[in-house]
């Protein structure tokens, strides 16, 4: 089961309620990441704060409301602002320019003409401890869409959809460089704050994001017209990777030649894990296309439960023979039907645990 928080008001009020009602989850995130930073790279929490503070000027210029919301989370949870800033910069600390961490995920979106409805979702693969940090946030903000988002306690941006028909999923990309610009989790929140696809892209294009990641974004407008595409963001610009047939898939390696010109992909298990998951997901979708099988939420559940190439499967299990920083597993799975504005979530592995509509 996942704890649900209803948040509304000013950015500070939204943050404070997040911190107070999600206090245990925030402290779980702090415990997890302090342990991980030190365990994998001997980085102290004080050093992590110094890395995070480098991004503060860019965040302030990008959207000062994010500063206020993080201050509110800190106050509500009874911790320092700098602690919450570290959580929202955790990808920049962990995944850029270091050989210590790897993140995982398989994300899929289907739109017409391939399907009648637009469905987007993913498995989020990470450290099992963070299952205890998960929160479902429903956020009402003035002059912005209402957001339904799954996040780790203390992070103000992650995976979800909004009342304007925009959804976003995240695939981490492990590369050799980052900048002092805006952390990617705040980019995810900016996408969810947007009314249109145009507005969402304007928040993440060029070199606004501090590190590399893939944002799988889908939009269904008020007339039911839809589109989905991968947006590989980086400190050196963004590339858009669409699919005119209505099938979009991404895992955890760089696919854009343009992004590859500027960054080195440091996913050491690219071939044994990420590429197999991507090709397997595409194979499962194509199999349904060839046989005329309807592709709906139930089909997504089957795909996200797939254990081909176990343990490095779409439904990810811990690989005990891998280095410690590669020992991850599926922590949650989410399926969003944008045509219906519904979300189903599985906490744990889809092959073992069921989905609930939230």
Shape: globular
Please state roughly what percent of the residues sit in beta strands, choosing from under 5%, 5-15%, 15-25%, 25-35%, 35-45% or over 45%.
15-25%
| CATH-defined architecture | 4-Layer Sandwich
What is the CATH class designation?
Alpha Beta
Mean pLDDT, to the nearest integer, reads: 95
Kindly state the percentage of residues in helix.
25-40%
What is the succession of H and E elements? Answer: EHHHHHHHEEEEEEHHEEEEHHHEEE
The total count of strands amounts to 14
Write the CATH fold name.
Penicillin V Acylase, Chain A
Query: From the helix content, strand content and strand pairing, which structural class follows?
Result: alpha+beta
Low-confidence region ranges:
none
User: CATH homologous superfamily, by name?
Assistant: Penicillin V Acylase, Chain A
- The number of distinct structural domains comes to 1
Distance separating the two termini: 10 Å
Please list the strands of the largest sheet in the order they lie side by side: 1-4-5-6-7-8-9-10
Cα gyration radius (Å): 19 Å
Could you please describe the fold and organization of this structure?
InterPro entries: C45_proenzyme-like, Peptidase_C45, Peptidase_C45_hydrolase. By secondary structure, this protein is an alpha+beta fold. The protein has one domain: Penicillin V Acylase, Chain A, CATH 3.60.60. α1 runs parallel beside α5 and α3 packs across α6. Helix content is 34%, strand content 24%. The model has no long low-confidence stretch (mean pLDDT 95). The protein has twelve helices and 14 strands.
